[in-house]
Design a protein that fits this description.
Layout lengths: L4 E7 L4 H13 L3 E7 L11 E5 L1 H5 L10 H4 L3 H9 L5 E6 L9 H9 L5 E8 L19 E11 H16 L6 H12 L3 E3 H4 L15 E2 H5 L11 E2 L1 H10 L10 H6 L2 H10 L7
Parallel strand pairs: 1-2, 1-4, 2-3, 5-7, 8-9
Antiparallel strand pairs: 4-6, 5-6
Helix pairs in contact: 4-6, 6-7, 10-12
């Protein structure tokens, strides 16, 4: 029988992709959805969907203190602890970051396959690696194998494993260890001797290494306009956000980093992106 699964959307804004994720997961696929929102830059109005606000105070109530300054980015695992505390009656929790794009035509299949997973944990690339990731190195100080890794855009773990992650995060913070969300998940799988499977092996029809990575981004507008695409994409960024990030230098967007966006953009959008990059002569 499929596990009762809470889908948790991690965000700091209720932008187009955040809205699409909530609407498709809840209304198209029938999933139970809650947003975990970082509101330090402003209120996130989730338009009637359930919301948990993440803050240092809320985390302190769960025994999580002495956070690093960049905890909002660095510690995505916090979303699990807040969700499991507020909604303890689920068998497993799936965390989806707000720059993941799930096509409407495949969202039901995605939800059904995650609910039916036969392992304790899944994430893209989850397992031992040949090269240590920078923010997993301190696992060694906890007597765990630091040569493990994954990426965090979509992860799904059992309730029991959430509790193991929570305890491991507290241990790491007390020792001032620099371990990110990916490292905490990898360490918890080892500690619990939990079963696991990489997401790309669990859902190979929807998770493709060509469309699911950490960089470079894809253009959300082009994905949304393609009714035939079934694969899941990450990261997916809207045209509006691309322009904003070029101006703000938030993501250090260059022509090379935006190569997929420029390939997927058409007409006026491509022209506008090139002009914003200062590449008018290449239009």
């Amino acid at each position: 029988m499929p596990a009762r699964t809470l889908f948790v959307i991690r965000t700091n804004a209720f932008d187009l992709n955040s809205r699409l994720l909530g609407q498709r997961l809840a209304e198209v696929a029938g999933a139970t959805v809650v947003y975990v929102a970082d509101e330090r830059k402003g209120i996130v109005d989730t338009a009637g969907y359930a919301k948990i606000v993440t803050s240092e105070g809320a985390l302190a109530g769960l025994g999580i203190r002495d956070l690093p300054a960049d905890w909002g980015w660095f510690c995505g695992d916090m979303c699990y602890y807040l969700a499991a505390d507020r909604y303890p009656d689920f068998e497993q929790y799936a965390l989806v970051e707000s720059d993941v794009y799930i096509p409407e035509r495949s969202v039901k299949s995605f939800v059904e396959q995650l609910r039916a997973k036969d392992v304790d944990a899944t994430a893209f690339g989850l397992g031992p690696l040949e090269k240590t990731k920078p923010y997993s190195k301190d696992l060694k100080k906890l007597d765990l194998d630091h040569r493990w890794g994954c990426i965090f855009p979509i992860t799904c773990v059992t309730k029991d494993l959430v509790h193991v992650m929570h305890a491991l995060r507290i241990r790491a913070l007390k020792r001032d260890l620099r371990i990110n969300d990916e490292g905490i998940l990898c360490g918890a799988v080892q500690l619990a001797k939990a079963s696991y499977k990489p997401l790309e092996q669990l859902i190979p029809d929807l998770i493709d290494p060509d469309t699911f990575d950490t960089n470079p981004p894809h253009l959300l507008d082009a994905l949304y306009a393609d009714p035939e695409e079934a694969r899941i994409f990450h990261p997916a960024v809207s045209f509006e956000k691309v322009i904003d990030r070029i101006y703000s230098s938030e993501k250090n967007y260059t022509r090379h980093r935006l190569r997929r966006v420029l390939k997927e953009a058409e007409g006026m959008q491509r022209t506008a992106i090139l002009r914003t990059l200062g590449l008018d002569g290449e239009i």
